[in-house]
Amino acid sequence: MIASAPADRIGWHPYGNPDRSALAAMGIVELVLHTRDIVGAHHIDYRAPAQLVAPCLDRIFAHAERSDDPWQDLLAATGRTPESRGQAWRWDSTAKPVP
């Protein structure tokens, strides 16, 4: 869907109307976080690859604090670390200008 959508096409989301890059980042974030949530309930450790997570952080969590570990940064940005649990969070899926 991402590859075939016109570059100027904008979707809808309550946290910003997304372009293709935001839709891709949102989909990846949903997939890796919920995979972690599900397998974690079965005491299986899961860690998404940094090269997959880092661009998503840059695209929809630009405001999030960064370290040298994008996976931990994503977990913190979404309230999944002991320090961030219970904190409100949201991503920014606002469309970016087409170059």
Structure commentary:
- The mean pLDDT is 91.
- α1 crosses α2 (50-60) and α2 crosses α3.
- The chain has helices at residues 20-40, 50-60, 70-77.
- The protein is 40% helix and 0% strand.
- It is mostly helical.
- It has a domain at 26-77.
- It comes from Actinoplanes flavus.
- This is Mycothiol maleylpyruvate isomerase N-terminal domain-containing protein.
- Residues 76-99 are annotated as: Disordered.
Concise summary:
The chain is mainly alpha-helical and about 100 residues long. It has a domain at about 25-75. The chain is built from three helices and no strands.
Output the helix-strand order: HHH
Low confidence ranges: none
Query: What is the count of β-strands?
Result: 0
Distance between the termini: 20 Å
Region (Disordered): 76-99
Protein name: Mycothiol maleylpyruvate isomerase N-terminal domain-containing protein
Organism: Actinoplanes flavus
Task: Quickly list its features.
99 residues, mainly alpha, 3 helices, globular, Mycothiol maleylpyruvate isomerase N-terminal domain-containing protein
Record the SSE blueprint.
Layout: H1 20-40, H2 50-60, H3 70-77
Helix pairs in contact: 1-2, 2-3
